[in-house]
């Protein structure tokens, strides 16, 4: 008997008999998918349904045990790999965004320092220093909050 994830001996998991054939495969699996809160399981059931005619011919009939074995061995692993790749891509994008933020912060710091130097050396206001340095409107929006006239 398979046990629940908590390894609680009082709550064994259902172990379907290996010889019981599923009469209405598509309907049964679509019902399981509809009531499942597990996205990976739902996707795995849909993948199985796309391939179940071939699978049935190879194995001599579909049982719930064969469906569960297929999902555990093949489909679930496929989705785990897909999720790992997706998470790796997200981490890479986050890293790239952090680098861009750091570069923008360094650039802003440099622009602020240049404006402050111009303000002190020529006794200008923040707006006048930005004008003297030829800052665009976008750069002004970045720099002005850090300048004190």
Topology:
Elements: H1 25-35, H2 39-59, H3 64-122, H4 126-133, H5 137-143
Helix pairs in contact: 1-2, 2-3, 3-4
Task: Explain this structure.
It contains five helices and no strands. The chain is mainly α. It has one domain. The chain is rod-shaped. The model is unreliable at 1-5 (pLDDT under 50).
Keyword list:
about 150 residues, mainly alpha, rod-shaped
Low-confidence stretches: 1-5
Shape: rod-shaped
Quaternary structure annotation: single chain
The helix count comes to: 5
Return the average pLDDT rounded to an integer: 78
Rounded to an integer in angstroms, the radius of gyration calculated over CA atoms is 31 Å
Brief summary:
With 149 residues, the protein is mostly helical.
């Amino acid at each position: 008997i398979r046990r629940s994830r908590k390894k609680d001996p009082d709550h064994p998991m259902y172990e379907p008999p290996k010889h019981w054939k599923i009469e209405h495969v598509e309907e049964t699996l679509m019902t399981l998918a509809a009531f499942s809160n597990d996205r990976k399981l739902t996707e795995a059931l849909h993948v199985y349904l796309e391939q179940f005619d071939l699978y049935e011919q190879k194995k001599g009939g579909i049982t719930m045990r064969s469906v569960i074995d297929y999902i555990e061995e093949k489909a679930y692993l496929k989705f785990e790999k897909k999720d790992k790749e997706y998470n790796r891509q997200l981490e890479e994008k986050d890293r790239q965004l952090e680098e861009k933020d750091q570069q923008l912060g360094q650039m802003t710091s440099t622009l602020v320092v240049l404006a402050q130097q111009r303000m002190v050396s020529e006794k200008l206001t923040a707006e006048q220093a930005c004008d003297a340095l030829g800052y665009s409107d976008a750069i002004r929006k970045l720099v002005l909050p850090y300048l004190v006239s």
